[in-house]
Write a structure and sequence with these properties.
The chain is mainly alpha-helical. The chain has a single domain, classed as Helix Hairpins. The protein starts with a helix and ends with a helix.
Length: about 130
Amino acid sequence: MFVRFGRTLRDALREREVRSVLVFLLIILLSGSIFYHLVEKWSYLDSLYFSVTTLSTVGADNISPATIAGKIFTMVYIFLGIGTMLRFINILAAHAKKEGAMHTLLGVDPYEKTKEIIQSTKDKFVS
């Protein structure tokens, strides 16, 4: 599974749009981290942690902006960042789907190896 994801990610990164969205996402994370470090006086690690948890919509219960500037920035940051993150995930999903479709077109079952492993394990324990 991780090998397939890695291959999909590698193939996706060959396209300019994917690289552009990824670079923009990294810039958003970096700018958020720097902003929170300077304005909220958080450590770089706490700033990065808050930036990542905010954009991933997990949320950080233990830290939140205390300044008005931090709160306003966070509202804008959420809309920009989540939209960019969703675009990146959408592109990766499209590549994964396309890769699966290519396997089907070529007559190769991407889950064949898994089926073989399950069958061989089943044969060992059932007999």
